[in-house]
Amino acid sequence: MTYNAGDEDLRLDGDYVKLEDGGGDGGALCQAETLPSCGCDRGVGWWVKLVLLGLLAGLLTAVCIKWVGPFIMYKEIIPIINWETETFSRTKLALLVFGSLTIFPTLLLPSSPSMWVAGMTFGYGYGFLLIIGAVSIGVSIPYFIGSLFYHKIQVLLDRYPKKASVIRLAGEGSLFNQFRAVAFIRISPFPYIIYNYCAVATDVKYGPYLLGTLVGMVPEIFITLYTGIFIKTLADASEDPHTLSAPQIILNLIGFCITATATAIVTLYAKRRLKQLQMERGLVLK
């Protein structure tokens, strides 16, 4: 609806009106501001798709638990565990785990399988000490190798300023700010294998880099140790069902879900803090 009053137009198209200059006579133009859609008015089709998607996810989960999980457990995991325990002693396994965690980051290979083996063989205490010692060396080698290609890595980061803005946070501010930024980067979903080589190009000092890395990787280390212990428990129960009762299996599943949920919460918090640090420095993360 539009009202004309002299040189002024009042246009009512929605719940809001906006006053603007009408022309050279100094008149005012009121234009409607349409309310943005709140997204609450979803049709029946949307809910039907959501329900069907949930049913499909539940069906796939049931299939995995009933057939796929036991098949992989009997055909892959149990034979590997048996071969490992029969072939290597605990000392040799410790050396293998330590060596792989030291070399794999340099070769851009994932280290999670080695951490699983540490959990299955040594548990939380010795497994954590073994991993944290190996990781301190494994992340240091790429750092010093990256220093040899300092300028080339900087040129590469300059080509992607928006994506590189996250890791550049680690090289700014005091030593404590560098340590905090590195820890958040390690906890966040940012690929840490790539960051090992790129960190030196952000001018982050080695001390904050190493300490931030060790602190930031603690949640990942514990979730991988728990996963390894959980896999070993399921493998033992598959071979001898009497070793683990149904309530124990349920408690282990609940514990695994709680651990994974806690890790996800910490990861989301770290990602949020990284965005806040970027906003403080005038950076925009897409």
Automatic annotation (TrEMBL):
InterPro entries hit by this protein: VTT_dom (IPR032816)
Pfam families: VTT_dom
Parts of the chain that traverse the membrane: 51-72, 93-112, 124-150, 209-229, 249-270
The entry's keywords: Membrane, Transmembrane, Transmembrane helix
Domain VTT: 109-229
Record protein name field: VTT domain-containing protein
Species whose genome carries this gene: Handroanthus impetiginosus
